[in-house]
Design a protein that fits this description.
Layout lengths: L8 H10 L7 H10 L2 H8 L3 E3 L4 E2 L5 H40 L14 H19 L3 H9 L9 H4 L5 H10 L5 H9 L8 H16 L39 H15 L5 H11 L25
Antiparallel strand pairs: 1-2
Helix pairs in contact: 1-2, 4-8, 4-9, 4-10, 4-11, 4-12, 5-8, 8-10
Length: 308
């Protein structure tokens, strides 16, 4: 049975020092541990331990480096959240516009245009929950139900899907039957050629968005799932074949950031994603880019060249 007792912050500091972590400014360490839990920070000092069973640190491991890693990760999440927001809004807009014109404004309720009926039912139930929550808070949804009391349907897609999470939007898109023309046309607008590749990109980005939203660690994280890469992307990609992430590297963040950059370049060609990401590595020189799967000179690949 678990038998460890909670220890005070001063005891936490003493324990870290005993295990070999250099803490030269104890009041500052106390301030950090008062506001960031021991176990949350522990995700960043874990790699600094030579003996992970006894939690003994490698020589010259410093608390200041732990804090730097933590701050780098926090700023990285903010950067990616900003990028993903643009992708999410663009996907939502394309789904609403294309499918409302091809099918009708209530296409997202039509089980006939989805491949997996069970997944469709689950997704629609989640959408209903999101719209129900919005009914008491969002003015547009509230006014729609007030004005159309006798219409028992969901509000049309341009109202309903504004309340829907990126995860559910990606599920709607991925589950569309291939007979729906909009599935390919949306992929083409994003530079993804056809429906074969885009669903896996959106799914991975939605997972990363959730990590960002819940303040979860991205640095040195093994990401779940996999993605399909285009063999011949129509838009600027990675020129050096050695720098194209391989299947065994898909658990690292870099390949997913490449896909974010690829999509963002179609939405906002003059974005500064590369500059902002590179500035983070400059600001935090102790961060090992390999922990994110970064490739040598990644900034100079055609994909990553920011337009001025």
């Amino acid at each position: 049975m678990f038998s460890k007792k909670p220890i005070t912050i001063l005891q936490q500091i003493a324990q870290l020092q005993k295990r070999g972590l250099e803490i030269t400014n104890e009041p500052l360490a106390e301030k950090y541990l008062t506001n960031i839990s021991y176990y949350r920070l522990g995700e960043y000092w874990y790699v600094m331990q030579a003996d992970k069973e006894q939690h003994i640190f490698k020589p010259h491991s410093r608390f200041t480096d732990v804090v730097a890693l933590y701050n780098f990760d926090a700023e990285l999440r903010l950067l990616l959240f900003d990028v993903i927001e643009k992708i999410e809004i663009s996907l939502r807009t394309k789904l609403i516009y294309n499918l409302s014109h091809e099918i009708d404004p209530w296409w997202f309720c039509n089980s006939e245009i989805f491949i997996d009926r069970i997944q469709f039912t689950r997704t629609l139930a989640k959408i209903e929950e999101e719209i129900t929550r919005a009914r008491s808070k969002d003015v547009t949804i509230k006014n729609h139900f007030k004005k159309h009391k006798d219409d028992l349907r969901f509000p049309p897609s341009w109202k309903s899907l504004e309340q829907v999470s990126f995860g559910n939007l990606s599920k709607l898109y991925g589950n569309l039957t291939h007979k729906v023309n909009s599935k390919d046309s949306i992929a083409q607008e994003f530079g993804a050629v056809n429906h074969t590749y885009l669903p896996s990109w959106l799914q991975s980005i939605a997972q990363i968005r959730n990590f960002c939203a819940h303040h979860s660690r991205l640095w040195n994280r093994n990401l779940p799932g996999t993605v399909k890469l285009l063999p011949k992307p129509p838009n600027p990609w990675i020129k050096d074949n050695e720098n194209i992430p391989k299947q065994h590297e898909f658990s690292k963040l870099y390949v997913h950031m490449c896909l974010m950059k690829y999509l963002l370049n179609t939405i906002q060609p003059n974005n500064q994603f590369t500059t902002r990401l590179n500035d983070l590595f400059v600001k935090y020189p102790n961060v090992d880019p390999n922990a994110l799967g970064m490739k040598p000179n990644w900034q100079h690949e055609p994909l990553w060249l920011d337009k001025r």
